[in-house]
């Protein structure tokens, strides 16, 4: 059983390196690095929403001339903006005061979690700019964990999470995209070129 897991892991690693070398070294043959990146990462991870990945990245016109480094920077910028937006969104819900009393406590916790997520993404950007891709990955991952902790609090308490469901999903997808772009750079050793 361990041998089959090792073979699967080896195959996955080889596939990822092949995709990296063929598609992410710069703008691809057809010039569409975003669609190629999203498609290839979706093949590896079907929990990544291909359409969301493409539309999120293509919303920034700089992706038309970006390489994988540019996509990583853009994806982290999207994460940072989204985490900041969610923090502000939760703040607005709390000021409105229309939520059920039990939800208020969890919303306050979530506001803190997303405040920490903002800090984590900021640290990821700093690490990335310093070519410390391992810590950039760690910080983006931590931001995703903060958001997930928000959701878990609601779920475990049996409190309606619908107020944040869409925002949570979007942030989850954006952190996946950031992690995948940074991991592609880290795993492919582009930074040694």
Automatic annotation (TrEMBL):
CDD domains: PMEI-Pla_a_1_like. Residues 29-181 form the Pectinesterase inhibitor domain. This is Pectinesterase inhibitor domain-containing protein. It holds the Pfam family PMEI. Keywords: Disulfide bond, Membrane, Signal, Transmembrane, Transmembrane helix. InterPro entries: Invertase/methylesterase_inhib, Pectinesterase_inhib_dom, Pla_a_1-like. Belongs to the PMEI family. The chain crosses the membrane at residues 7-27. GO terms for molecular function: enzyme inhibitor activity.
């Amino acid at each position: 059983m361990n041998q089959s897991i090792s073979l699967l892991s080896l195959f996955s690693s080889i596939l990822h390196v092949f995709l990296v070398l063929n598609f992410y070294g710069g703008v691809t043959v057809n010039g569409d690095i975003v669609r190629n990146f999203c498609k290839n990462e979706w093949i590896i991870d079907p929990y990544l929403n291909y359409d969301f990945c493409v539309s999120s990245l293509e919303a920034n016109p700089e992706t038309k001339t970006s390489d994988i480094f540019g996509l990583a920077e853009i994806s982290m910028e999207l994460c940072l903006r989204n985490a900041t937006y969610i923090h502000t969104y939760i703040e607005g819900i709390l000021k409105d005061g229309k939520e059920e009393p039990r939800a208020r406590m969890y919303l306050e916790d979530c506001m803190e979690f997303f405040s920490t997520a903002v800090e984590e993404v900021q640290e990821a950007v700093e690490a990335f700019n310093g070519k410390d891709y391992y810590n950039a990955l760690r910080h983006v991952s931590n931001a995703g964990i903060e958001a997930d902790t928000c959701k878990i609090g609601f779920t475990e308490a049996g409190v309606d999470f619908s107020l944040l469901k869409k925002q949570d999903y979007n942030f989850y997808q954006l952190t996946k995209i950031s992690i995948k772009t940074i991991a592609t750079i880290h795993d492919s050793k582009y930074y040694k070129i």
